[in-house]
């Protein structure tokens, strides 16, 4: 079942720097989708479109086959369903403590205090950071900050979780632990979409892969097939898995 469908997305940053060039992409429910491509291929820009942070100059996005709305009510409803975690967790953490930071999103859903607390505690437990609840956010390690940022998105209980380079900067053990946590979230019903430069990780973890090149999708299908196809990967400026 298609959850999100992007059609013909075109976007350029100030100064006319092109980022997306008529990009099409469909995200299926219950799948782990890895987005790969060289620097500047449009990966992060696409994620920022998929939760309404950026608005395309041309093209449209559908949720459940319904075009999204960019007014206040439309964006709120959209972001309840589609969460985003940026590559640099410092861009998302701003509250004095971990608990306060993770509670920010649920509090803006007009939930009662008991429900907010329940969501925050569940998210902290899911990311295995309940012991950090009262820790000041500026005293966290890099990996802990990543987990807190993800917990903040999880507390919103989105149907789709978008993650920009979730394992970047993590050591091998921390990356493995984070991927195990993401797998548990997916098993509980969250569709995962993530960008990465780690081809081998995407090959092991993703169900599907989409290759980006100059703001377009040049291949999309089963991860194990696409990421081992040397010719296809070369078109995206990448080495194949295991290469």
How would you sum up this structure, described in words?
This protein is of the alpha/beta class. The chain has a single domain (2-235), classed as Rossmann fold (3-Layer(aba) Sandwich). The protein is 36% helix and 27% strand. The chain has 9 helices and 10 strands. The longest helix is centred in the C-terminal third of the chain and has 16 residues, at 172-187. The protein is globular and about 50 Å long.
Short overview:
This protein is of the alpha/beta class and 243 residues long.
- Kindly report the average pLDDT value: 93
Instruction: Give the CATH level 1 class.
Output: Alpha Beta
Helix content: 25-40%
The CATH homologous superfamily name equals P-loop containing nucleotide triphosphate hydrolases
For the largest sheet, list the strands in their spatial order: 6-7-8-3-9-10
Based on CA atoms alone, the radius of gyration comes out at 18 Å
Number of domains: 1
Name the beta content range: 25-35%
- Figure out the total of helices: 9
Order of helices and strands: EEEHEEHEHHHEHEHEEHH
Assign the structural class, choosing from mainly alpha, mainly beta, alpha/beta, alpha+beta, or little secondary structure. alpha/beta
Q: Segments where pLDDT lies below 50 for 5+ residues?
A: none
Reported CATH architecture = 3-Layer(aba) Sandwich
Q: Span between N and C termini? A: 33 Å
Basic shape: globular
Biggest β-sheet strands, sense, barrel: 6 strands, mixed
Q: What is the tally of beta strands?
A: 10
């Amino acid at each position: 079942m298609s959850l999100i469908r992007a059609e013909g997305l075109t976007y350029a940053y100030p100064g006319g720097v092109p980022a997306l060039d008529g990009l099409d992409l469909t995200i299926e429910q219950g799948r782990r989708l890895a987005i790969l491509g060289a620097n500047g291929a449009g990966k992060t820009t696409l994620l920022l479109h998929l939760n309404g942070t950026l608005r395309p100059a041309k093209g449209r996005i559908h949720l459940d086959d319904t075009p999204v709305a960019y007014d206040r009510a439309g964006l709120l409803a959209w972001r309840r369903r589609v969460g985003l975690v940026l590559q640099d967790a410092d861009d998302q953490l701003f509250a004095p403590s971990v608990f306060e930071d993770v509670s920010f999103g649920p509090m803006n859903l007009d939930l009662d205090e008991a429900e907010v607390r329940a969501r925050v505690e569940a998210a902290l437990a899911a990311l295995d950071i309940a012991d950090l609840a009262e820790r000041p956010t500026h005293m966290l390690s890099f990996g802990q900050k990543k987990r807190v940022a993800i917990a903040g998105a999880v507390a919103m209980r989105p149907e789709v979780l978008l993650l920009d380079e979730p394992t970047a900067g993590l050591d091998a053990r921390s990356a493995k632990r984070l991927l195990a946590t993401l797998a548990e979230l997916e098993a509980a019903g969250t569709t995962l979409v993530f960008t990465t430069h780690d081809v081998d990780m995407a090959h092991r973890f993703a169900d599907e892969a989409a290759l980006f090149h100059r703001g377009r999708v040049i291949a999309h299908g089963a991860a194990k097939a696409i990421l081992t196809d040397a010719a296809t990967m070369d078109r995206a400026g990448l080495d194949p898995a295991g290469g």
